[in-house]
Design brief:
By secondary structure, this protein is of the alpha+beta class. Helix 4 packs across helix 7, helix 5 crosses helix 8 and helix 8 packs across helix 10. The chain contains ten helices and seven strands. A hairpin with a 3-residue loop joins strand 6 and strand 7. The longest helix has 22 residues. It has a single domain, classed as L-fuculose-1-phosphate Aldolase (3-Layer(aba) Sandwich). The N terminus is likely disordered. The chain has a seven-stranded mixed sheet with strand order 3-2-1-4-7-6-5, with helices on both faces.
């Protein structure tokens, strides 16, 4: 009988994810936290591949499994393309570093991410971007328009937060949480985009949909031709379809299929993230 060859990319990822377990245990990193670190580092690498970074700016975080007051976030000083699981900083909701790192946490990143992790139990992962198209839509008065299928299937999850300056005022956290409400995507007016999820995969899939919708909108608006506005009944129907497709039991629920495929891509093209 012919034995099926192991997938080399999967083998590489699994080997990396088990690197130095004794050393991780000595640093107080549980197997559950290490898995979260590996996925979060993957999200950073994939964000770089997508061209969504702002050099050292913007940030992605996830709650430390089994805790309610700790999260992992990037060290301010590393490019997303070089992020690894062991680089990530564990901090508490007061801004205290709970893991060793020569780097600090971006203060604006702390304000935004701590606000959501503190007050939104279902937001285990949070992602914030300053992309060209996301900021462009965030700077338009009407925000995300019901022009495309990508926008329509996301609209039920989109909320808005007004710009208050660089997010370093901790008093803004209450308003961020209120404006996000029960949404999964937040347009920070004149600033950028944000997504949350019960998993890193769901968070990333939501950001992908939001960013694609923004890019399509700006492209259509700068094309020079009149926009094809959709009838209200078609808009309503497609928004409802999006709620079904990406809701519980839908084929796009939780971004699971997309995230699994993206992890395979990362294993092939940038496997060092799991170290």
């Amino acid at each position: 009988m012919t034995r099926r060859a192991a997938n080399p990319s999967t083998k590489h990822r699994n080997a990396n994810s088990r690197t130095r377990p004794a050393a991780r245990a000595a640093r107080g990193i549980s197997p559950e936290e290490w898995r979260a670190r590996v996925e979060l580092a993957a999200a950073y690498r994939l964000t770089a591949m997508m061209g969504w970074t702002d050099m050292l700016g913007t940030h992605i975080s996830c709650r430390v499994p089994g805790t309610h007051d700790q999260f992992l976030i990037n060290p301010y000083g590393l490019l997303f393309e070089e992020m690894t699981a062991s680089d990530l900083i564990k901090c508490d909701i007061e801004g205290g570093k709970l893991s060793e790192s020569p780097y600090e946490v971006n203060s604006a990143g702390f304000t935004i991410h701590s606000a959501i992790h503190m007050n939104c139990p279902g937001a285990d992962a949070v992602m914030h971007c300053h992309t060209q198209y996301g900021v462009a839509v965030a700077s338009q008065k009407d925000g995300l328009l019901p022009l495309t299928q990508m926008a329509l299937t996301a609209l039920s999850q989109v909320r808005y937060h007004d710009f208050e300056g660089v997010a370093e005022d901790l008093n803004e956290r209450e308003r961020l949480v209120k404006d996000l409400g029960d949404g999964g995507m937040l347009i920070l007016r004149n600033h950028g985009t944000l997504s949350v999820g019960t998993s890193i995969g769901e968070m990333f899939a939501r950001m992908y949909r939001l960013e694609r919708a923004c890019k399509m909108q700006i492209t259509a608006m700068t094309g020079g031709a009149a926009l094809n506005r959709l009838p209200d009944e078609v808009v309503k129907h497609t928004v409802e379809q999006g709620q079904f497709i990406y809701g519980p039991g839908g084929r796009g629920a939780g971004g699971k299929l997309m995230w699994t495929a993206l992890m395979r891509k990362l294993d092939r093209e940038s496997p060092g993230y799991a170290s």
